[in-house]
UniProtKB/TrEMBL annotation:
It catalyses: L-homoserine + ATP = O-phospho-L-homoserine + ADP + H(+). The gene is thrB. It is an enzyme of class 2 (transferase). It comes from Halomonas korlensis. Keywords: Amino-acid biosynthesis, ATP-binding, Kinase, Nucleotide-binding, Threonine biosynthesis, Transferase. This is Homoserine kinase. Belongs to the pseudomonas-type ThrB family.
Length: 319
């Protein structure tokens, strides 16, 4: 159960009293999640999600509030945080930072169909269109600058072949991304896996869990999506899902020449990013709570498939 900080109804009622959101009817702890405590809260007026932040850089939470406010104002399907009667969104509850969100409709798609893939691509393209003008700034915490020092921490736990694979890949990325032209920048979701989306049938109900949100290469965000949404269990890309997402995305935001050139390498780098981050959780920095870490092998398989088979051809930009 991913409720690390239990709450009483009295505590939640006191928080709700600051908002124009109705009176508490019921509350339920949410089992999903690996980092924060989440409750579904029902009032006599609406359905809400209450999140308590258990770890991380709490001074960065205003960035996430500002980003979600910005995307919500631009009619993106995100849970814009509730602000109290004084205009304040971020509060403390049980001595933890706390935010209230509207509960968005839908559930996670385990095997997304092509209509859902098109909806995701279209929404991500719209998001990247407007996010280029977001004035907040938070450096990407998992880009090349992170890979360079952090991969050394896991090498001792790897086979000689995997050590060589990881070192060679990081060196390659440094040559490509360290000296190449700057790619288009903007605000990113940073972790847009299927379980961070909600679908009500084929309708995209929301993009959620922006706590890896940052600013950086828009292509980084897109590569994370393709590596999760369009990948088969053996690591190879599914052409139908790949093209459905990318055609819808490109209709909203065409890629630059530099982005098209660096796309295969970005797919590889984001695959290694998750292989490494999961290895770190298993061997170096296990979670503070008794939760099963994600399997690093999944993204090692994806990386090897990208190396063996390369990237699929990108669809042409819609013009």
């Amino acid at each position: 159960m991913a409720v690390f900080t239990p709450l009483t109804e009295t505590q939640v009622e006191a928080l709700l009293s600051r908002f124009d959101a109705g009176s508490l009817v019921s509350m339920e702890g949410v089992a999903a999640g690996t980092e924060n405590t989440t409750f579904f809260v029902t009032t006599d007026r609406r359905e809400l999600v209450l999140t308590l932040f258990e770890q991380g850089a709490f001074d960065e939470l205003p960035f996430f509030v500002d980003l979600l406010d910005y995307l919500d104002e631009h009619r993106l399907p995100v849970p814009g945080p509730l602000h109290d009667r004084d205009g304040v969104a971020l509060h403390r509850l049980a001595d933890k930072p706390a935010l209230l969100f509207p509960r968005l409709p839908g559930k996670h798609p385990h095997a997304p169909n092509l209509t859902q893939c098109r909806a995701l691509g279209d929404t991500l393209g719209r998001m990247h269109q407007v996010s280029q003008h977001f004035t907040g700034h938070r450096p990407n915490p998992r880009d090349l600058h992170w890979l360079l020092p952090m991969h050394h921490k896991v090498l001792v736990y790897l086979s000689p072949d995997d050590q060589a694979l990881m070192k060679d890949e990081v060196e390659t990325y440094q040559g490509v991304f360290g000296t190449g032209p700057e790619l288009p920048q903007g605000a990113l979701h940073g972790d847009l896996f299927r379980d961070n989306t909600l679908f009500d049938g084929d309708r995209l109900g929301g993009l959620i869990d922006f706590y890896n949100g940052c600013t950086g290469d828009l292509l980084f965000d897109l590569a994370i999506v393709i590596n999760d949404w369009a990948t088969e269990p053996d690591g190879r890309l599914n052409a139908e899902r790949h093209d459905a997402i990318l055609r819808a995305y490109l209709a909203r935001r065409p890629l630059t020449h530099a982005e098209r050139e660096e796309w295969p390498m970005m797919l590889r780098m984001t695959a290694l990013r998750y292989w490494l981050s999961r290895l770190l959780v298993v061997y170096v920095d296990p979670p503070a709570h008794d939760l099963t870490p994600h399997d690093p092998e999944q993204f090692r398989t994806i990386l090897l498939a990208r190396l063996q088979y390369g990237a699929l051809p990108l669809p042409e930009d819609a013009t």
